[in-house]
Amino acid sequence: MKEKKVVIDVEGLTKCFGAFKAVDNISFEVFQGEIFGFLGANGAGKTTAMRMLCGLSLPTSGKARVAGFDIYKQSEQVKRNIGYMSQKFSLYEDLTVMENIRLFGGIYGLSHKQIKEKSSELIETLDLIEVSKKLVAALPLGWKQKLAFSIAILHKPQIVFLDEPTGGVDPITRRQFWKLIYKATSESITVFVTTHYMDEAEYCDRISMMVDGRIKALDSPQNLKMHFSASSMDDVFLRLARKAQRQAE
Amino acid sequence: MRVILFLLRKEFVQIFRNRMFLPMIFAMPLVQLLVLPLAANYEMKNIVAVVVDHDRSMVSQQLVEKIAASGYFRIHAYPTSFDEAFSLIEGDRGDLILEIPKDFESRLIERGGSSVFIAVNAINGIKASLGGAYLRQILTSFSSELRERQMPVAAFPPLPLIRLKTSVRFNPIMSYRHFMVPGFLVLLVTIISTYMCGLHAVKEKENGSIEQINVSPVKKYQFILGKLIPFWILGVVVFSLGLFVVARWVYGILPVGSLLLLYAYLLLYLVAMLGLGLLVSTYCHTQQQVMFTMFFFMMIFILMSGLFTPIESMPRWAYLIACCSPITYFTEVARMVILKGSDFSHLHIHIGMMSFFALLFNSWAVINYKKTL
Amino acid sequence: MFRDTRTLLILFGLPVVQILLFGFALSNEVKNSPMLVCDYAQDGVSRNLIDKFSANKSFNLEEVLLSHRELNDAFKKGRIKSALVFPPRFETELARFNEAELQFIVDASDPNTANILMTYAAGLVGDYQQSLLLDYSLPYSIQPEIRMLYNPELKPSFTFVPGLLALVLMLVSVMMTSVSIVREKEYGSMEVLLVSPVNPWMLIVAKIVPYLFLALINFITIMLLSITLLDLPVNGSALLLFAESMLFIVTALSLGILISNVAQTQQVAILISLAGLLLPTVLFTGFLFPIENMPLALRYFADLVPSRWYYLIVKSVMIKGLGLLAVWKETLILFLMTASLLFLSFRSFKVRLL
User: Fold this and answer.
1) Is C138 part of a structural domain of the chain?
2) 8 Å CB contact between A5 and A161
3) Smallest Cα distance from B60 to chain C, Å
4) According to the model, what pLDDT value does residue C5 have?
5) Closest partner residue to C275 among B28, B115, B147, by Cβ?
6) Residue C164's closest CA among C332, C21, C329?
7) CB distance from B342 to chain C under 8 Å?
8) How high is the pLDDT of residue C324?
9) Using 50, 70 and 90 to split pLDDT, how confident is the model at C136?
10) Mean pLDDT confidence for C80-91
């Protein structure tokens, strides 16, 4: 196996809320260009872990480097090199499609020319030409999600973090969405995605299973199925989750 | 710097996009400024007097005429009994009762003196004490006129006379509107800018868009400036419209002092108050919370800032609270510059205090905003 | 709404703090007004007059000899509100010509305060003059016998507390309802209710009741504080007062519902119920500025403000001790207002259902 470049390096990362350990001493590596799936039931600590890596919350202890930068000391550089798409749709609903693209392009330091090129390219690939001057609030959820993803990778980040990106989206749009993800990896963007759809897990290169704030298993979907002699990822998950202490919220 | 421009563009688009927003920001304050000063009139000129004249003599009639002609009182009714008069007071159709006894004239002439009975509705204490004082003055001058008419000059030695020569400064026609318009102007600018800024900032928290900003390389101060500057500009625009359109054209109030000084102070004041708006928003999660918290502060600031009642008259502790409110200082400065023509040298304390507030609120807001991460 | 402790704290804390703060602090009296005394005479008469002024609680004296320019500066800095200037040889002139003049300069940028100060100053000088005449018994003098009804100590809280009560109840009730309903609208939970077979009337009633309770608790707290701490009497029937307050709260809540039907977002609801209502309520309730002084059009407008009627009711029942007979008109007006507000809300509710 050829040596791959490590883009996320996590060691002993822990986050406590009072006495409650939301994330309990997790360690893993993510390699450049892969799709890294973060699986777990609601409340397993996926989102908390991801928020620490994005610089949205500070870890209680542990070390982590994202895109080669320390998340404590170099959060500014980290932010320049990542994209993020949150669970809740968080673009500006009272801005138009174009205005959102322009705003985030500007924030990430793209030149006016780049913004122009990117946005027309983006609007074309997403088939948003007719609604580009409409308020984002008027778009159907699936389109909003695709737009949010495209904006998250607008500035060609090394890594993009996706927090349950396909929640509440119909199967067809979900498939289209994954096409976008594959396209991003082909441009050597690393994708870090949390989900609780087990069928989506099959799309990932490697998967870590989180239970009660700890990583219980980490491997490719094939190997995991083999290891647990399960027929599907659903099965794998059920076997692991059965031992869970925490009830889903 | 470029990032701030992008953020500003976004804020302005958002503000101007909301169709209810603009009329609220511009029309509402201006209409209020147009109408409210007409309502705020404190003059005690229409004290309603109810006269019960049991005497019905020449002298008693002269007395009543003199009261009616004084300009302070309006004689409402001449009931025949005190009870009847009292029911008028109960129904709020009279402010005071003047009861003239039956043998008023004869006692005055034959025994050299008489008395009248005055009952004042004192629920409004200041109205009652002023009404009483006016009436007493009228009675004194009525009796000395009577004396001059009825008695030869030589009958008693000349009275020593101390004349109080009164001169009024800064508002020679004693127009209450001149006093209220600058105050309302300050108030409306405050409500609009501070409220909107706080609400606008917390809205990002409520709908989650702040997350998207927080993972981006946008720095805290850039985000905060992006929130402050639009409302800073809007505040200045609202103030200018109020000052040049309403105050000048409608009420004919021309600032006596330097406009430059007034605007410099306005800018400083807006920095302080927008900082307060942001500060509140860092402690809140929903617009509703911002609204109630701001409402709390605004009520206290508005009623205790000397806008309606003089702060020197408050008890010591309340006076100290008033001194901790930025609105107090700007209300004073607006009146001082617009009405009295005070210049920079008169405003050292005001400028110092406002700079302190601006620094305090903004640095507190930035520190707290950082902590929330 | 009940889950949010901070909102709850503000809802209950706010009225209490405000009544206490304003009940003690607000007054339209003029007290401790800073006055400068320039006594160029330094003789017996000027001394006596200065003593009279300094004994009066309206003035706060400071004796310095200032030049004309310095005096001007003191006014412009806002350090003083008035100045009393005695010319040199004041007493000598009074003795020689039986007449002397002293100057009273007042900052009229606040005409109300200026007017009160002038009245008081004239009164003080007049009193002093009278005391010089004590030796003579003057014929044709009229002795006024003055009685202050209802409020013999002339406490300002007698006007301000009923006014603040009306103000707080009105604003809190309107804001609570309008904002919470619009919030539900924003979150979409309103749609669920609207598609259900619930009668719109029932919906309105269900919305009103919790806030009615909240506002009543506010009312009771305010009353208890005013009675115990501010020494306000309840001369009339407490039951009547309670019933009238309930009616007034329902009026305000109905207004809140109407606003919530018009506004689409919380921000707009807040703007209408605060920026739009705060100042008109403060002004047209009538506790700060007499309504009879306003131009005719504004007097008619004031009649549309519910708190104006409630304020009259509270004063009549609580302080004057009158019964329902004296306030039936105001009560009827509040009733009619409530009915028409609810009718309008009901109509706009239906429109949205279709």
Assistant:
1) no
2) no
3) 11
4) 67
5) B28
6) C21
7) yes
8) 84
9) low
10) 86
User: Are residues C22 and B304, on separate chains, in Cβ contact within 8 Å?
Assistant: yes
When CB atoms are compared, the residue of B120, B162, B335 closest to C94 is B162
Contact B373 A95 (CB under 8 A): no
Residues on chain A touching B369 (C-beta within 8 angstroms):
none
Q: Hey, what CATH class is A1-81+157-249 in?
A: alpha beta
Domains and CATH numbers, chain B: 2-40+177-371 (no CATH), 47-155 (3.40.1710.10)
Same domain membership, residue C237 and residue C105 = no
- Please tell me the distance from the alpha carbon of residue C306 to that of residue C316, in angstroms, as a whole number: 16
Judge whether B52 and B44 are in contact, CB under 8 Å.
no
- Pick the most confident of A85-89, B115-119, C28-32, C287-291: B115-119
**Average pLDDT rounded to a whole number, residues B74-96:** 84
Average pLDDT, chain C: 81
Put simply, the chain B residues between 77 and 116 with a CB less than 8 A from any chain C CB are 89-92, 108, 112-116
Q: What is the pLDDT of residues A63-81, one digit of tens each?
A: 888 888 888 888 888 888 8
Say if residue A82's pLDDT is above 70.
Answer: yes
Could you tell me if B128 lies within 8 Å of chain C, comparing CB atoms?
yes
Look at residues C79, C98, C132 and tell me which one is the last residue of a structural domain: C132
Most confident of A93-107, B25-39, B259-273, C37-51: B259-273
Which pLDDT tens digit goes with each residue over C184-198?
Answer: 777 766 666 666 666
CATH classification at residue C37: 3.40.1710.10
CB contact under 8 A, A56 and B5: no
| ipTM for the whole predicted complex goes beyond 0.95 | no
Beta carbons of B120 and C22 less than 8 Å apart: no
Is B163–C115 a contact, with Cβ atoms under 8 angstroms apart? no
- pLDDT on residue C338: 92
Classified as helix, coil or strand, B174 is coil
Alpha carbon of B211: minimum distance to chain A alpha carbons (Å): 7
DSSP β-bridge partners for residue B330: none
- Closest CB to B122: pick one of C60, C109, C152: C152
pLDDT at B269 over 90: yes
Using one digit for the tens of pLDDT, what is the confidence trace for B335-373?
888 888 888 888 888 889 999 999 998 888 888 877 555
Backbone angles phi, psi at A11, to 5 degrees: -135, 115
Q: Are A86 and A163 in contact (CB under 8 A)?
A: yes
**Chain B contact present for A149, CB below 8 A:** no
- Whether A79 sits inside 8 A of B212 (CB atoms) is no
Geometric angle at alpha carbon B142, from B138 and B145, rounded to 5°: 140
Q: For CATH 3.40.50.300, list the domain ranges present in chain A.
A: 1-81+157-249
Cα atoms in the 13 Å half-sphere on the side-chain side of C121 = 29
Whole-angstrom CA distances from B304 to B37, B317, C283 are 18, 12, 15
Q: How close C191 comes to chain B (CA, Å)?
A: 20
Structural domain of C195: 152-353
Mean pLDDT within C53-76 = 84
CA of A1, closest CA in chain B: separation in Å? 34
Residue among A109, C147, A141, C301 at smallest CA distance from B85: C147
Chain A residues inside the 8 Å CB shell of B13: 95, 99
CA-angle at C135, arms to C134 and C136, nearest 5° = 95
Concatenated DSSP letters of B8-76: HHHHHHHHHH-TTHHIIIIIHHHHHHHHHHHH-------EEEEEEESS--HHHHHHHHHHHHTSSEEEE
What value does the mean pLDDT take over residues C308-336?
88
